[in-house]
Amino acid sequence: MPVTETFRIPKKRSHVPAARQRLRKTLADWGIPAELADSVTLLANELVTNAVTHCRIPYAEIEVALTLDEPELVLQVSDPDRDRLPQPHDSTPDEEGGRGLALVAALADDWGCRQEPYAKCVWALFKSREGAHVPATL
Prior knowledge:
The chain is an alpha+beta fold. It has a five-stranded antiparallel β-sheet, covered by helices on one side. It has one domain: Heat Shock Protein 90. It has helices spanning 16-29, 34-54, 100-107, and strands at 3-10, 61-69, 72-79, 110-115, 120-127. 31% of the residues lie in helices and 28% in strands. The radius of gyration is 15 Å and the shape is globular. α2 (34-54) runs antiparallel to α3 (100-107). The chain has three helices and five strands.
């Protein structure tokens, strides 16, 4: 049976570390192997930072959802700026940013984005290779 952890943060860079910490704790509680947890946490940091940086809606909240449906783990990051879908591009060596989606594509088993009625969602799918488990207390 799938289990999901969902929360929201204000659209402020100062809240990105709190999102990262909350996801890291959830992954540990679910028994996700360290290597996979590191990849999920890194991509969560990228996707949440992108949402905070590029969402043009004032006072917006960013929603983060993590779902474990063995053997798959899905990370979803949503914001209310539904008409601005992320566009991967090739960054030059001199550019400081612009590599986040390339990193997502490299580390996730699959990824994409979708428009919803009031938001856009960027998601990344990971397949557990070591068989994570959900503690009986969930």
